Amino acid sequence: MEPNVEDRTIEFVSTGPMCRYARDLPLLMKVLSDYDQRLQWDTK
């Protein structure tokens, strides 16, 4: 018999902003993309 976890999941699930400032977006994208070199985030 498995425990009923549906009632407790709402305590841990939340939504919110990914970052506070727009200038943090490039760093966030680097982290989320696992520093994939094909994306060239450092090129201006």
Give an overview in words.
By secondary structure, the chain is mainly alpha-helical. It has two helices and no strands. The radius of gyration is 17 Å and the shape is elongated. 0% of the residues are buried.
Task: Record keyword descriptors for this entry.
mainly alpha; 2 helices; elongated
In which range does the helix fraction lie?
Answer: 25-40%
What are the low-pLDDT stretches, counting only 5+ consecutive residues below 50?
none
Helix/strand order: HH
SS elements, strand count = 0
Shape: elongated
Task: Break the fold down into its secondary structure elements and pairings.
Layout: H1 6-9, H2 25-32
What can be said about this structure in brief?
By secondary structure, the protein is an all-alpha fold.
